[in-house]
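Lab notebook, design round three. We kept the backbone fixed and only want residue identities now. Task for the bench partner: fill in a sequence for the structure below.
Input structure tokens:
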């Protein structure tokens, strides 16, 4: 709602060129600040960051509406637009870095991203539609004022959010802080699959910058829908986003992510070219709806893959870097679009802009498939850890840390992995093979792949209560005491599950 009414206001003042200037002012300075701002914000509680983001955006947008109502100077509007844009760059990185700390499995992570995409689609549908109605009746000031109230409501909502503060990065000063703030760029070099995904998203945001300006020009000059048509076309993108989110919920949760990502990337551009080839108002609404659907699927698949390909300590900064690059390329696209329109006309500009992403999708297809297989947490370790009741409630962030601490060890058949009465210093998870549990010389149980043992001595601080002997060749993952206790003690449900397991095993050994 805010952006649509702002662009309509700019178009009334200075045409396509003014639209491009407003878009650049909102995105370009923010692009330069985003990586540093994300690095600084990463050391603050995430809930406080989100509260500040929504609150400051609400104040800036309300001030924009006030200046417009009072016929204030256009440079003052641009200054307020710049402030709002700078705050906006922290919203997505902070939100996306919080999700892995809440989700307990890849499926829940996908579901979190789908839910966010669905919410964005709903907002993009309702905001421009209502904004287009308001601008046609009351002018753009009304839509911008309502948008300011929406940001205020968002601030009230996130006041209830409680997320634990990350430990890494705290206490850095001087040059260390600068290096930490720019760590996202280093991470993209160190994790090339993440760099690929960011590159694809940056290309898409460049085309988005082109589209922001081209939709205004197409509505007024090509499709003859007038200024209210800008809201209609943007609302169609939101409607398509709802469809895309539904596709994400039903398809991406069950299948891979790389295939949908490639298809969505291609469909982000192809309909734009079709608007230029077939300049019909009804078809244009359909085509931008397809773009909205593709955008939802692309966001869910790409963000989830990016979350999986970057370790937790770097996620916020990588997403901050992405946000900065996205803002930069949206701004560049908004600058290039008027040049394309002036040089070739609206139709050719749409065709050229729409051809970029389908070509890129074809070129990058193989690399995207490889990125899906390069997750930070290997699938085997993740599946084993998630199958153990005491680890099942943990978030992906904690599971990732546990997986990085696992050591693979092997034993031949007949070897005692642990002996009754020995001190306990680690926990074991069976990857392959079988063991028998022997207490006071009697076999009381057998365990196989996916089972764990050794938790009693760690949780109760007692010697080993039983001997565990390999009955076949045995491949294990070993987790040291400190890492085990840190993971379990930080989650109430894991602690309860661990106590229940310990009680059942002691009961099997004849203890009350």
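Proposed sequence:
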């Amino acid at each position: 709602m805010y952006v649509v009414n702002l662009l309509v206001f700019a178009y009334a003042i200075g045409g396509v060129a003014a639209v491009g200037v407003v878009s650049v002012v909102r995105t370009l300075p923010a692009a330069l600040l985003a990586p540093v701002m994300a690095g600084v914000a990463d050391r603050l509680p995430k809930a406080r960051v989100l509260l500040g983001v929504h609150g400051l955006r609400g104040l800036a947008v309300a001030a924009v509406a006030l200046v417009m109502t009072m016929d204030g100077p256009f440079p003052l509007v641009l200054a307020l637009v710049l402030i709002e844009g700078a705050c906006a760059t922290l919203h997505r990185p902070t939100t996306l870095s919080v999700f892995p700390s809440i989700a307990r499995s890849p499926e829940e992570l996908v579901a979190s991203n789908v839910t966010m995409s669905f919410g964005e689609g709903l907002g993009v549908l309702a905001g421009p539609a209502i904004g287009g109605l308001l601008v046609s009746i009351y002018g753009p000031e009304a839509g911008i004022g309502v948008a300011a109230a929406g940001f205020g409501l968002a601030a009230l909502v996130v006041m209830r959010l409680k997320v634990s503060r990350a430990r890494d990065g705290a206490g850095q000063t001087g040059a260390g802080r600068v290096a930490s703030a720019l760590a996202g760029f280093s991470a993209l070099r160190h994790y090339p699959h993440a760099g690929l995904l960011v590159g694809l998203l940056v290309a898409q945001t460049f085309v988005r910058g082109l589209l922001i300006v081209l939709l205004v020009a197409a509505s007024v000059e090509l499709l003859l829908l007038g200024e209210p048509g800008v809201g209609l076309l943007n609302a169609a993108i939101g409607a398509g986003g709802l469809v895309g989110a539904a596709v994400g919920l039903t398809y991406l949760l069950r299948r891979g992510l790389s295939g949908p990502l490639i298809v969505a990337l291609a469909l982000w551009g192809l309909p734009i070219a079709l608007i230029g080839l077939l300049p019909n108002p009804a078809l244009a609404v359909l085509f931008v709806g397809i773009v909205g659907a593709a955008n939802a699927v692309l966001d869910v698949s790409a963000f989830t893959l990016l979350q999986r390909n970057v370790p937790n300590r770097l996620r916020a900064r990588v997403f901050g870097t992405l946000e900065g690059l996205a803002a930069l390329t949206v701004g560049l696209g908004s600058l290039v679009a008027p040049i394309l329109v002036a040089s070739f006309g609206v139709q050719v500009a749409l065709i050229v802009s729409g051809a970029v992403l389908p070509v890129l999708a074809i070129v990058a297809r193989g690399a995207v498939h490889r990125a899906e297989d390069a997750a930070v947490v290997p699938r085997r370790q993740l599946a084993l850890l998630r199958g153990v009741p005491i680890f099942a409630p943990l978030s992906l962030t904690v599971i990732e840390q546990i997986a990085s601490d696992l050591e693979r060890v092997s034993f031949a058949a007949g070897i005692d992995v642990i002996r009754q009465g020995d001190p306990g210093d680690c926990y074991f998870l069976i990857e392959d093979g079988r063991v028998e549990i022997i207490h006071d010389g009697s076999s009381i149980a057998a365990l196989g792949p996916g089972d764990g043992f050794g938790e009693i001595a760690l949780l109760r601080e007692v010697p080993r209560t039983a001997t565990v002997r390999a009955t076949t060749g045995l491949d294990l993952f070993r987790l040291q005491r400190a890492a085990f206790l840190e993971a379990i003690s930080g989650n109430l449900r894991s602690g309860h599950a661990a106590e229940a397991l310990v009680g059942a095993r002691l009961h099997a050994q004849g203890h009350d």
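Keep this in mind before ordering anything: Residues 165-175 have pLDDT under 50 and may be disordered.
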